[in-house]
Amino acid sequence: MMNFSRIAFLSALVLGAIACSSSDDNKGGGGGGQNPPPGGGGCSGDGCIAVALSLAGDVSCAIMKDGTGRCWGPAYTGGRGRGDKEKSSGPEPMAVTELTAAADIFINNNASCARLRDGTVKCWGDGNGSGNGTGEAEGGKAVPAAVNATGSVKALVGSDSRVCALLQDGGASCWQQMLAIAPAAPDPSLVPVKVPTVVGATELAVGGDHICILNASGVVSCYGFNKSGQLGYVTDSASDELKPVTDLPAAAHVWASDDSSCAALKDGKLACWGSNRGDGNAEAGPEAVIVTGVANVTSVAVGGEHTCAVVQDGSVWCWGANEHGQLGDGTTTDQAKPVKVAGITDATVVAVSKEASCIIRKDGKVLCWGSNPAGQFGARTENPTVTTPFVVPL
């Protein structure tokens, strides 16, 4: 079995829908599924169509087409944004209180944060000593509160230990754990602080203890800790300056998580370095290798020990650890090369975390697979290991 100790155990997000090929979609692999109950929040119209999602710990959240947010799972400490810091009475999806005009979301075990359409940020959650960006270490915010991200925000990304904002000027600000990425900053930082190393970024990817950026010329550069080669070049153990990934062709997108990094290349191929490189070799290393059998990706989610990619035809391919069925191929067998997720033909967005994976379909509905012991998929299942896609009820 692979060790998942560093990544938060996942919840999943969903809009009630149908996904696989039969009318029995929520049977779930290995007897893991059952038809879900009606959703818990009463969405309607564009409020039922997901456009963004993020997964972490005991809460998952989606941003809807109408700019509202919905969260679900057995969340503690205000992670669902309902104004109640106690554990929720059930896992069903419910609307986030006082959240409108949202465009994107990132959540981890300490905070949930949404980027609004005007480039501002709101966060909620307890903070667990690391803060939620509002300046409070403990107690936090049970409903969304404004966060000063130090500039207009283009995207929110992060890891299980920090939240970062890619700014419109090509810089970045981060909060929570800062030691590996900005040693001069408070650690943890309870409010966003500028990361001086990041300049000229068009995309930002944040791993467990490293950062990668993409610039306008298609060059990917990384810095931080490098124990598994996640920086894409050889160094003793860490680098405090951005350096280009060795021999990586021009890239169009970049992603990272924990000890892994990946880039979609302009020629349509997907390259990964660090751990879980997807080329059939289980060994980690700094060399960027081409992922076997996956090309023309439209969305990629890099997890601690498994990765998933959506390709142009709407299918989803995953590789890496699979103890909890998070690869979605109907088994619990680890895979060093990509395997096709069962029954998905119209995915647009994918998200992963420690033990599960979720996608948004073209119609805005969401499906998840992997570990669901306490209703992390918005509904409880007979078997906590769900090895094929499961529709979570909105």
Give an account of the 3D structure:
Helix content is 0%, strand content 42%. Residues 1-25 and 27-40 have low confidence and may be disordered. It is globular and about 50 Å long. The strands form seven sheets. The protein has a four-stranded antiparallel β-sheet, with no helix packed on it. Strands 5-6-7-8 form a four-stranded antiparallel β-sheet, with no helix packed on it. The chain is mainly beta and 394 residues long. It contains no helices and 28 strands. Strand 14 and strand 15 (220-225) form a beta hairpin.
What's the N-to-C terminus distance? 33 Å
**Integer average pLDDT:** 87
Query: What is the helix/strand order?
Result: EEEEEEEEEEEEEEEEEEEEEEEEEEEE
Radius of gyration: 19 Å
Shape: globular
Approximate strand percentage = 35-45%
| Contiguous runs where pLDDT drops below 50 for at least 5 residues | 1-25, 27-40
Number of strands: 28
* Helical coverage, percent range: under 10%
Secondary structure blueprint with pairings:
Elements: E1 50-56, E2 59-64, E3 69-72, E4 94-95, E5 102-107, E6 112-116, E7 121-125, E8 141-147, E9 153-158, E10 162-167, E11 172-176, E12 189-194, E13 203-206, E14 210-214, E15 220-225, E16 238-244, E17 251-257, E18 260-265, E19 269-274, E20 285-295, E21 297-302, E22 306-311, E23 316-320, E24 335-340, E25 347-352, E26 356-361, E27 366-371, E28 385-391
Antiparallel strand pairs: 1-2, 2-3, 3-4, 5-6, 6-7, 7-8, 9-10, 10-11, 11-12, 13-14, 14-15, 15-16, 17-18, 18-19, 19-20, 21-22, 22-23, 23-24, 25-26, 26-27, 27-28
